[in-house]
Design a protein that fits this description.
By secondary structure, the chain is α/β, with parallel strands linked by helices.
């Protein structure tokens, strides 16, 4: 047997062993997730999970996704298994996934327990800080066996995040009200990832003391908080008409200084690498608010 043939056999054995090696990670709920080998058939139960799996190099492993999983464009072709708040359990089981990626605050916990009872392996995703998105890329890459792509994406993310932090360090604070929706009037609490983005930009979430992810608040509470900037999400990249419901409240600082801003929710309200695009735009909006302060 030639040396070249022995080398080829050794490489083939190493690749085969790597493909069959057990994979173990901890998910965001604290559970240990074990796979006998990297996942080849993945169902993702949240749009942010689909997008992050693509970023981690595992898009071709996706065999099922939920409604509104629309980025990248290839994600639109993945078969649907219901919506994130109401999963079609039979459709998930029929796809025979070796991994299900779930969303802790979006999926129904009872339905996730039923998937586990069917013998399916469930990884729970809940990145509540921007730093944790890079960790999510690393972990999903390990689960899918795409560590090289995922690791490179995580490193790029961390470097870009560090640059954003450095660029906005030490800036004067801006009091921010982030409005997710009009009726009910919904904002973000302290544990929500958008609060982290606000902090990175030198902002202070006026409802950051609330511990719910997406608490309902009253108009009176917003008036009392007197934010310097109001930032609205909505349903898409078009500025929501309801943002201008605040225009009549001219005693509020944000209204008085015309600091009513809009961010595409896809780049701010999804826990994906694109949140850095949203954070950059948010930082620019808060810089605009600073520039409109009266001269001292």
């Amino acid at each position: 047997m030639t040396l070249r043939l022995l080398s080829c056999l050794a490489i083939a054995f190493a690749l085969s062993a790597g493909a069959c090696a057990e994979v173990t990670v901890k998910d965001d709920s604290g559970r240990t997730v074990r796979l006998q080998a990297p996942a080849r058939r993945i169902v993702a139960l949240a749009p942010h999970a689909v997008e992050t799996l693509f970023a981690a190099g595992a898009g071709d492993r996706l065999v099922g996704a939920v409604d509104y999983s629309d980025f990248p464009p290839e994600a639109k072709k993945i078969p649907r298994v219901g919506g994130y708040s109401r999963i079609d359990l039979e459709a998930v089981a029929a796809l025979k996934p070796d991994l299900v990626v779930a969303w802790e605050s979006g999926n129904d916990a009872t339905q996730l327990d039923k998937l586990r009872a069917l013998g399916l392996t469930v990884y729970v995703s809940q990145p509540n800080t921007i730093d944790s998105i890079a960790d999510q890329l690393d972990r999903l890459g390990r689960l899918a066996g795409t560590e090289a792509v995922a690791g490179a994406a995580a490193e790029r993310f961390r470097k870009r995040l560090d640059s954003l932090r450095h660029a906005n360090a030490g800036k004067p604070k801006v009091r921010v009200f982030y409005q997710i929706w009009k009726a009910p009037l919904m904002t973000v609490g302290g544990p929500q990832i958008i609060s982290d983005a606000i902090r990175i930009c030198g902002g202070d979430n006026v409802f950051g003391h609330l511990r719910q992810m997406a608490p309902n608040v009253t108009v009176e509470a917003v008036i009392a908080a007197d934010p310097e900037a109001i930032v609205a999400g909505g349903m898409g990249d078009a500025r929501p008409a309801w943002l201008h419901d605040w225009d009549s409240l001219t005693r509020m600082t944000a209204v008085k200084r015309d600091n009513l801003f809009h961010l595409d929710p896809d780049i701010m309200q999804r826990h994906t690498p694109r949140i850095l695009d949203g954070t950059e735009r948010l930082c620019a909006d808060l810089d605009m608010a600073r520039s409109r302060r009266p001269a001292q």
